[in-house]
Amino acid sequence: MKSYIAFLVQMILWSVFSVAEWISEKDHVEYKWIMFVLFFYLAFMAAKRIVQSRKLTLFITSFSLTCFFVFRIAFENMMEIF
Cα angle at 26 between 39 and 12, to 5 degrees? Predict the structure, then answer.
Protein backbone atom coordinates (compact mmCIF):
# COMPACT_ATOMS: atom_id res chain seq x y z
CA MET A 1 0.00 0.00 0.00
CA LYS A 2 2.88 2.37 0.75
CA SER A 3 4.29 1.76 -2.71
CA TYR A 4 0.98 2.68 -4.30
CA ILE A 5 0.72 5.89 -2.26
CA ALA A 6 4.30 6.82 -3.18
CA PHE A 7 3.49 6.17 -6.85
CA LEU A 8 0.40 8.41 -6.69
CA VAL A 9 2.31 11.20 -4.95
CA GLN A 10 4.99 11.02 -7.61
CA MET A 11 2.42 11.11 -10.41
CA ILE A 12 0.98 14.25 -8.83
CA LEU A 13 4.46 15.76 -8.72
CA TRP A 14 5.12 14.85 -12.36
CA SER A 15 1.81 16.46 -13.30
CA VAL A 16 2.85 19.64 -11.49
CA PHE A 17 6.15 19.47 -13.38
CA SER A 18 4.23 19.24 -16.64
CA VAL A 19 2.19 22.34 -15.76
CA ALA A 20 5.32 24.23 -14.70
CA GLU A 21 7.02 23.24 -17.95
CA TRP A 22 4.00 24.40 -19.93
CA ILE A 23 3.98 27.75 -18.11
CA SER A 24 7.69 28.26 -18.76
CA GLU A 25 7.61 27.26 -22.44
CA LYS A 26 9.75 30.26 -23.47
CA ASP A 27 12.56 29.45 -21.02
CA HIS A 28 15.90 28.09 -22.15
CA VAL A 29 16.48 24.34 -22.21
CA GLU A 30 19.00 24.59 -19.36
CA TYR A 31 16.35 25.96 -17.01
CA LYS A 32 13.96 23.16 -17.94
CA TRP A 33 16.67 20.59 -17.15
CA ILE A 34 17.31 22.23 -13.79
CA MET A 35 13.58 22.18 -13.08
CA PHE A 36 13.43 18.49 -14.07
CA VAL A 37 16.30 17.63 -11.72
CA LEU A 38 14.61 19.49 -8.87
CA PHE A 39 11.30 17.70 -9.43
CA PHE A 40 13.10 14.36 -9.73
CA TYR A 41 14.84 14.99 -6.40
CA LEU A 42 11.58 16.06 -4.79
CA ALA A 43 9.77 12.97 -6.08
CA PHE A 44 12.60 10.70 -4.96
CA MET A 45 12.70 12.19 -1.47
CA ALA A 46 8.91 12.03 -1.10
CA ALA A 47 8.87 8.34 -2.03
CA LYS A 48 11.86 7.61 0.20
CA ARG A 49 10.07 9.17 3.14
CA ILE A 50 6.93 7.12 2.47
CA VAL A 51 8.53 3.76 1.57
CA GLN A 52 11.74 4.02 3.64
CA SER A 53 13.67 1.74 1.30
CA ARG A 54 16.21 3.15 -1.13
CA LYS A 55 15.97 0.28 -3.62
CA LEU A 56 12.16 0.33 -3.73
CA THR A 57 12.21 4.13 -3.92
CA LEU A 58 14.45 4.02 -6.98
CA PHE A 59 12.17 1.46 -8.64
CA ILE A 60 8.99 3.44 -7.89
CA THR A 61 10.56 6.68 -9.10
CA SER A 62 11.75 5.21 -12.38
CA PHE A 63 8.42 3.44 -12.89
CA SER A 64 6.38 6.59 -12.25
CA LEU A 65 8.65 8.63 -14.51
CA THR A 66 8.30 6.06 -17.28
CA CYS A 67 4.51 5.98 -16.89
CA PHE A 68 4.38 9.76 -16.92
CA PHE A 69 6.32 10.05 -20.18
CA VAL A 70 4.32 7.24 -21.83
CA PHE A 71 1.04 8.94 -20.85
CA ARG A 72 2.39 12.28 -22.02
CA ILE A 73 3.41 10.94 -25.43
CA ALA A 74 0.09 9.13 -25.82
CA PHE A 75 -1.83 12.30 -24.90
CA GLU A 76 0.19 14.41 -27.34
CA ASN A 77 -0.45 11.89 -30.11
CA MET A 78 -4.16 11.89 -29.36
CA MET A 79 -4.24 15.69 -29.49
CA GLU A 80 -2.64 15.61 -32.94
CA ILE A 81 -5.32 13.25 -34.22
CA PHE A 82 -8.18 15.46 -33.05
Answer: 25
